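Subject: sequence -> structure tokens, single chain

Hey, anyone have a minute? Need the predicted structure for the following. Not urgent.
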Amino acid sequence: MADITRRLGWRHLRGAPTAHVRHHRGTKLLHDGPGLSFWFRALTAALSEVPVDDRELAMTFHARTSDFQDVAVQATVTYRVSDPALAAARLDFSIDPDTGVWRGAPLEQLGTLLTETAQQHALDVLARTTLSAALVDGVAAVRERVAVGLGAEPRLPATGIEVVAVRVVALRPEPEVERALRMPARELIQQEADRATYERRAVAVERERAIAENELDSQIELARREEQLVDQRGTNARREAEEHAAADAVRAGAEAARTVRLAQAEAERSVKLTDAEAARTVKLADAEAARSVRLARAEAEGAREVGEARAQAQAAWLRVHGEVDVATLHALTGTRLAENLPNIESVTVSPDVLTGLLARFGTGERA
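Reply:
Had a minute. Here:
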């Protein structure tokens, strides 16, 4: 879009390098070319601006294949205006002298022309192609046919339009059909994935088997070494037991010899002690017997002397009592009896006892 400024009834236009500007006053062409800058009067000027840069036109349309399947085609056409004067004469590229904006929609007209032309050639190709062939080789076939068709279209050179390139981005069937078509490929991919998984598992199983065999071989070797170790330990234990037994036999012999020597010495000492004890016992027995004899003789002599003294005292007592009268004997008897009676602190005399005693005293007096 051209840049237009206003100054006191005059207008100044400054164009872009990619825009071809044509300035007419009546039937006279005053300015013609890209990137122009000039003053003009709005009432007498007829201005047109034609873009000369490459432009991209994206298009999407639907088509039907020979097996009656709908497909969507996405394409892009690159074009440019090769003859600005011819394009300005065939299409309305005029701009407003006050704003610099196109009065019409020339680019939309060009887009419609290119889209319809390209769609016509694409439909012609797809209508004679099956869906499977279109999905495999349809992109190249459609691109080639559209490029050839646009290059051979007479309206484009007559309008001053040059097609630079044609690209077909995608050619897609309906979603349900696309899913159905993807299913066999997915099945093949899944089968390949399963086969790879099975092969990986087989390799893993083989490796596990090899590892298990290695572990088994290691266990066998370890068991063999343990057996050797057990045998060696048994041999060492037997040798140690034999050495201990020999040492015990030596110790037992030495202990037995020492015990015999001690027993012999003890027996000799016991014999000596027994002989000394027997001699001492004999001596003690002889001394005790002699002492007992002497004590017996002394006791016998003392007993004889005591008996003789008692006999003499008894004879003297009898002689004394034989010479004393009866009254004296009664008195002595009472005295002796009184000496032998127990100590009586108090005596209780009942009337009956007193009566009997008095009666006895009375009877004795009368007698």
